[in-house]
Amino acid sequence: MRDLIYRRLKVMVMVMVIVSWRCVLGLENMNPIFFDEGLSHLFGESNLIRSPDDRSVRLLLDKYTGSGFISSSMYQHGFFSSLIKLPGANTAGLVVAFYTSNGDVFVKNHDELDIEFLGNVEGKPWRFQTNMYGNGSTSRGREERYRLWFDPSKEFHRYSILWNPTKIIFWVDDVPIREIKRKEEMNGDYPQKPMSLYATIWDASSWATSGGKFSVDYTFSPFVSEFKDIALDGCNVSESLTTLTRDNYNNINCSASDQLLMTSDYSTISPKQAAAMRRFRERYMYYSYCYDTVRYAVPPPECVILTAEKDRFRDTGRLKFGGSHTKVHRARKKRRRNRSTPVVSAEL
C-alpha cells in the first residue's frame, strides 16, 4: 500500500513539473507530434533511427553520410520546437541544425531561420548561432553566435523558433535569446514565404570549428543527435497550394492562425524573460552582426543598438577581451576588486 501511494505521488509530481514547464511557453495548447504525423526522411536514411513509440528520432553522422528530416508540410509562419540532445566527446567539424527554409522551392530567393550547433574539440564547449535570411539575402546574413550555460550533450533542452508576421524569437528552454522585430525598411529581408522545418547533422569541417582548422575525427563516430517531443504550430499551407510561386503564396488566408501566433505566450516576452535575455546576451553572446561595422557600415534596420552592449564589441562584431565571455567576466571582476566592490552573480 505504501509503495502504491509513493508511486502515485511520484507520477503526480512528474505531471505537475511537465505541466508547469509546458505553460512557460504556452505549450499546454500544443501536442508533440508523432514522426509520421508531420515529418519525413530527408537524407541518410540508414542513419535516421526512429524510436518504437515514434515520438523521437536519432540522427547519426558517420564517415559515409549524415542524416536529416523535414516537415511533411510547409508553414506560413509558425512555432517550431524540439527537445534536442547533442553528441558528446570530440565533435570538431560537425554541425547539428534545427531550422526553417524554403530553399528547395524558392531556389534564388529563399527564406531561412537557423539554429546551428557548432561542434568543438574534446574538452571545449559546443557553440551555436542563430541566423535569418529573407528573399535570398545570403550576402546579408544576420548571424549571432553564443555559448550555452549548460552542456547540451548531457541532457535534453528545448530549442524553439517563433516566426509570425511581426517578429521572430529564438528560445532556449524558457529563455528568449534573440528577438527580431520586423521593420518596414527590411522589405524582403524579413522572411515572408512559406517554409518547412528541417533537422540535420552533417560534416562542416571546412568552417565549423576555428574556421576549418579542425575537421571531423571519425574515430569518434557515429555522432548521435537526438530529437524528441517535436512541436509544429502554424498555418499549414501545403494543402492550399499545388505549386508555390511568388504570385500565389500571398493569396493564402492565414489570418486566424497568425492571430493565434501573435497572441500566444511564446510570442510575448515577459519582464522576467526580458531580464533573462539581457543576462544571456551579456554573458554568452560573442558575435553580433549589429556591431560588425566592417560588414555593415550602417546597422541593418532591425538592429537595436544598446550602448552597454556595443561597448563590449570590436568593430568586427566580436567581443573584446579575446572573444570569451569568461575573460570578460574576469576583467569585470578585476575592475570591481580594484574598486573594492563585492561581486554579485545572478542565475540566468
From TrEMBL:
Post-translational modification: Contains at least one intrachain disulfide bond essential for its enzymatic activity.
Region Disordered: start-end pairs: 324-348
Gene3D superfamilies: 2.60.120.200
Entry superkingdom: Eukaryota
Gene Ontology biological process terms from the UniProt entry: cell wall biogenesis; cell wall organization; xyloglucan metabolic process
UniProt enzyme class: transferase
UniProt entry keywords in alphabetical sequence: Apoplast, Cell wall, Cell wall biogenesis/degradation, Disulfide bond, Glycosidase, Hydrolase, Secreted, Signal, Transferase
Annotated ranges, domain GH16: 17-227
Gene Ontology molecular function: any one: hydrolase activity, hydrolyzing O-glycosyl compounds
A GO cellular-component term linked to this record: apoplast
A Pfam short name: XET_C
Catalytic-site annotation from UniProt: 112 (nucleophile), 116 (proton donor)
Localization (cell): Secreted, Cell wall; Secreted, Extracellular space, Apoplast
Family: Belongs to the glycosyl hydrolase 16 family.
Protein's UniProt name: Xyloglucan endotransglucosylase/hydrolase
